[in-house]
Design brief:
Keywords: Cytoplasm, Hydrolase, RNA-binding, tRNA-binding. This protein is α/β, with parallel strands linked by helices and 192 residues long. The chain is built from six helices and seven strands; from the N terminus they run E-H-E-E-E-H-E-E-H-E-H-H-H.
C-alpha cells in the first residue's frame, strides 16, 4: 500500500561525544549503519529527534535517534510515531541488553523493560509495550560493578575489534524484521 505508514526504527543512546562509544549507545551505532545503507544523513526533526527517511527493500523506513537522554526517550519516539502516523506495530526499538552475551542479537514483540529506563520511557509515552525490540547483547558487568556504570562505559578493546561486524549483523536483523517480518527474522538470527 502506497499510503501505509513507514516502519519507524529507533536507535537508543545518549546524545553528545561523551557517550559515543558507550555500550548504552549501541542503538545509535546500528541506526547509523542503517542510515549509511539507505544513503541518508540524520537531520533535526521537530519531534525532538534526528531522522533519516529511506527504504529498506520495498519498505519505507524512518530511522530515529532521540536527542534526549536515554531515560527520556519516550517523548521523541512518541512524537516521531505521531508525525509519521506509525502505530506501535510499525515501531522497532534497537537497544542494549545486559542479559545477553556480547554481540548476541534477539528480536521480539512486546515484553517488559527489564530495568531498561529507555524502554520504560517509551512504553509509558506510547501507552503500550507492544512494539518491536531488537536487543543487542552487551553482557553483564564484571564483578560487583553497578550495571548503570557498566552501560555508560565504552566497549572493551576486545569487544571493539568485533564491534563493526556485530553492528553490521544487528543492522541485518533490523532489515530482515522490516522487510520480512518478525518470524522470518527470528528464524534467521536466533539460530546463530
Amino acid at each position: 500500500m502506497a499510503d501505509e505508514a513507514p516502519m519507524v526504527v529507533v536507535g537508543l543512546g545518549n546524545p553528545g561525544p561523551r557517550y559515543e562509544g558507550n555500550r548504552h549507545n549501541i542503538g545509535f551505532l546500528v541506526v547509523d549503519e542503517l542510515a549509511a545503507r539507505v544513503g541518508g544523513r540524520f537531520k533535526a526533526h521537530k519531534a525532538g529527534a534526528e531522522v533519516v527517511e529511506g527504504r529498506l527493500g520495498d519498505q519505507r523506513v524512518v530511522l530515529v535517534k532521540p536527542r534526549s537522554f536515554m531515560n527520556l526517550s519516550g517523548g521523541p519516539v512518541a512524537g516521531a510515531a505521531k508525525f509519521f502516523k506509525a502505530g506501535p506495530d510499525r515501531i522497532t526499538v534497537v537497544h542494549d541488553e545486559l542479559d545477553l552475551p556480547f554481540g548476541t542479537v534477539r528480536l521480539k514483540l512486546g515484553g517488559g523493560d527489564n530495568g531498561h529506563n529507555g524502554l520504560r520511557s517509551i512504553t509509558k509515552s506510547l501507552g503500550t509495550k507492544d512494539y518491536y525490540r531488537v536487543r543487542f547483547g552487551i553482557g553483564r558487568p564484571p564483578g560487583r560493578m553497578d550495571p548503570a556504570d557498566f552501560v555508560l562505559r565504552d566497549f572493551s578493546t576486545t569487544e571493539r575489534k568485533e564491534l563493526a561486524f556485530e553492528v553490521d549483523t544487528c543492522a541485518d536483523a533490523v532489515a530482515a524484521l522490516v522487510e520480512q517480518g518478525i518470524e522470518a527474522a527470528q528464524n534467521t538470527f536466533h539460530a546463530t
